[in-house]
Specification:
This protein has 17 helices and no strands. It is an all-alpha fold and 418 residues long. The protein has two domains: 227 residues, no CATH class; 167 residues, no CATH class. Helix 7 packs parallel to helix 9 and helix 12 runs antiparallel to helix 13. The radius of gyration is 22 Å and the shape is globular. The N terminus is likely disordered.
Length: 418
């Protein structure tokens, strides 16, 4: 007997609307919190840019950029933890086991960062050893926070996850600006770490229930597989920046980076929606019920804001460029902004399809790595201008999207029919 009875078209559309509505309701709080966080980050940088000397603000930016680099492995921790909870539910023992495992993985790296703080500080021309040393506690706190958020997302507790973002953002904005007055860059960084710590305490309190149950482990293999997929997606969407810097003249590569930054900003909200959609994909595939509606709903909830943002930028690229960068770049950069905005919007679809493949533990989830290789080859051949680099990036995107669309559309559709 089939798990899902054949439905009339009207019933199928109703099921899709219902699944999409539920996913949108879950993703809404997290997307709103990320929007608030993005706006607060602009305020944070604007306030410190006005209050700190230019050299100190440059040092702060360098350390914050280094903190951003750890986002890729931490995203893998969050994604793996979300799968753990979505696969078999969440008990207190499972949560404690996952957090302990994350701590064991991150602690050696954090310990190594302490003696490395001196050379790192010299390389980035920081004024204090502490500015670089704060990377160690930041890694620990942010890694545990990512794990706890993943566990919450795996059990559809998106409101609690949204609260952690808001707590972190509020404390960072308040304490960071306040402590920067007497302590400079070190004070701003301490405020950032304390904001993450406050969010971690809130998240741990939510995932530390007294319920006794069988502990499920955060498997090394699953974490390694997740890291490979997340890193592949990062490489696929970022390698063009490095190649543009390598192949293009300085001023042209600067325009490319500015245009690509606008495009990458579009992906902030879709990434938040993807973090909520992935556990639903895992649960749908594990239950062997509602697979096709789950995939389609994820494409709508993640892809719609991405394409909407891309179209807004594509309609008025010159206006967006002027608002953000003034007259620093020539008018013809607008066409580059339009192209890279559309590429960024479409890459959200690749992210959904790769996560769908990862939900069923398929090697197809690694296709973005192949896309990155194709992209490197295409840009190496065609880099006569910034727009040529963008077109080569778009071509590799279309190839990767077509391959993933073929494998995931066919697989999830046939599972639905069974």
């Amino acid at each position: 007997m089939p798990l899902i009875a054949p439905a009339r078209p009207s019933g199928g559309s109703g099921l899709l609307r219902g699944t999409t509505g539920r996913l949108a309701a879950l993703a809404g709080p997290v997307m709103l919190a990320i929007a608030v966080q993005s706006a607060a980050n602009l305020v944070f940088h604007a306030a410190l840019g006005r209050s700190l000397p230019a050299a100190d603000y440059g040092a702060l930016g360098a350390v914050l950029a280094a903190m951003t680099l750890v986002a890729v492995p931490l995203t893998a921790l969050q994604t793996a933890a979300a799968r753990l909870a979505a696969d078999g539910g969440l008990t207190g023992s499972t949560a404690r086991n996952a957090l302990a495992r994350a701590l064991r993985l991150l602690a050696p790296i954090a310990v190594l960062l302490v003696p490395a703080a001196g050379p790192l500080g010299d390389f980035m021309h920081l004024g204090s050893w502490w500015d670089a040393a704060l990377l160690a506690p930041t890694l620990l706190v942010s890694g545990l926070l990512a794990t706890a958020r993943g566990l919450l997302l795996g059990t559809a507790r998106s409101r609690t996850v949204a609260s952690t973002y808001l707590v972190s953002t509020t404390m960072r904005l308040g304490l960071g600006v306040l402590l920067a007055a007497p302590l400079g860059v070190t004070g701003a960084l301490i405020g950032t770490v304390l904001g993450e710590l406050a969010a971690l305490l809130l998240a741990v309190r939510a995932v530390w229930p007294t319920t006794v149950g069988t502990a499920r482990r955060l498997a090394t293999g699953d974490l390694a597989r997740t890291t490979a997929v997340v890193t592949g997606l990062f490489a696929f969407t970022t390698v063009d920046l490095f190649l543009a810097r390598h192949h293009l003249p300085g001023d042209v590569s600067g325009a490319y980076v500015a245009a690509a930054t606008i495009g990458k900003t579009i992906l902030a909200l879709p990434a938040a929606a993807m973090s909520v959609a992935y556990p639903r994909l895992v649960a749908a595939w594990s239950a062997r019920a509602g697979e096709r509606p789950a995939l389609r709903s994820s494409l709508v909830v993640v892809g719609a804001p991405a394409m909407a943002g891309a179209l807004v930028v594509a309609i008025a690229p010159g206006l967006v460029l002027t608002l953000l960068y003034g007259d620093a770049f020539p008018a013809e950069t607008g066409s580059l902004v339009r192209a890279l905005a559309l590429v960024a919007g479409a890459s959200a679809v690749v992210s959904v399809l790769a996560h769908a493949a990862m939900a069923r533990r398929s090697r197809a989830a690694l296709l973005p790595w192949a896309g990155a290789v194709v992209q490197v080859g295409a840009i190496s051949l065609w880099h006569s201008s910034a727009l040529a680099v963008a077109m080569a990036s778009a071509a590799s995107l279309l190839v990767c999207m077509a391959l993933l669309g073929l494998t995931e559309g066919r697989t999830w559709g046939s599972a639905h029919r069974r």
